[in-house]
Design a protein that fits this description.
Distance between the termini: 38 Å
CATH superfamily of the largest domain: Vaccinia Virus protein VP39
Shape: globular
Strand order of the largest sheet: 3-2-1-4-5-7-6
Structural class: alpha/beta
Number of strands: 7
Low-confidence stretches: none
CATH architecture of the largest domain: 3-Layer(aba) Sandwich
Bound molecules: S-adenosylmethionine
Mean pLDDT: 97
CATH topology of the largest domain: Rossmann fold
CATH class of the largest domain: Alpha Beta
Radius of gyration: 19 Å
Largest sheet: 7 strands, mixed
Number of helices: 10
Helix content: 40-55%
């Protein structure tokens, strides 16, 4: 089964040979890919809804019968055991990812890596995790009809301080200056300018959009793009 460019990029960032948990696994295709390619020894795949849960069980049936996957119909990371050192959460809003992790903050003590791909609120998620002893060790932006951010956090012995700019755009993104990352902000400037010019917006929203355009332009200028 072919997996999307986004899931392929996520798979390429998964820490190798470490048991991992895919929360909100839905179709289970990421977990299937990781096991098909022997990238991790065993996995946990969960979802909090019956439809996706049945789907992931079907797609992972071979690995379930080989005891290489534990599946669970549960909210968030409530049932996660300390066998799993990597948590993957992809394809959800950044606020929902933060809520899932914050609700069971104690479980994060046992976690080495968090591989997260939020839809928006990246800054809030970076802020939350870096103030809870995780540092950012890799980042990528993928384009597949939308721009998707993927962030790899690693447990850190001490709190690493990041600037507001790093929290907002991603410290590794700013170093890598990857073409897709640059395109994301060039496109955002264009769509925000269009919003300002062609749509009825309230005063607060206009102010917010203007500030975002200025910030994005400044970042691109700093990066010489
Ligand atoms: C858009 S899908 C993303 C699927 C897959 N992770 C991916 O990136 O392709 C989001 C999935 O998260 C599940 N989900 C939402 N909230 C959840 C929660 N609190 N706990 C577990 N799963 C959740 C949804 O049921 C859905 O199957």
């Amino acid at each position: 089964m072919k997996i999307s460019k986004r899931l392929l990029k996520i798979a390429s960032m998964v820490p190798l040979d470490i048991p991992c948990a895919d929360i909100g696994s839905d179709h289970g295709l990421l977990v299937k890919y990781l096991l098909d390619n022997n990238l991790v020894p065993f996995c946990y795949a969960s979802d909090n809804k019956k439809g996706p849960f049945e789907r992931l069980k079907k797609n992972l049936s071979t690995y379930i019968s080989q005891n290489k996957v534990e599946v669970d119909l549960v909210d968030g990371i409530k049932n996660l055991t300390n066998k799993y050192k990597t948590i993957i959460i992809a394809g959800m809003g950044g606020d929902l990812i933060k809520e899932i992790l914050e609700k069971e903050k104690d479980k994060l003590k046992n976690i080495e890596y968090l591989l997260l791909s939020p839809h928006g609120k990246e800054k809030e998620l970076r802020e939350f995790l870096t103030s809870n002893q995780f540092q950012i060790i890799d980042e990528n932006v993928v384009y597949e009809d939308h721009y998707y951010e993927i962030i790899l956090f690693k447990k850190s012995p001490e709190i690493v301080n990041y600037s507001t700019k790093q929290l907002e755009y991603g410290p590794i993104n700013l170093i890598k200056k990857d073409e897709t990352f640059i395109n994301k902000y060039q496109d955002r400037i264009i769509s925000n300018t269009d919003l300002l010019n062609n749509h009825q917006l309230n005063h607060l929203r206009i102010q917010e959009i203007k500030e975002t355009i200025i910030k994005d332009k400044n970042i691109l200028k700093e990066l010489n793009c």
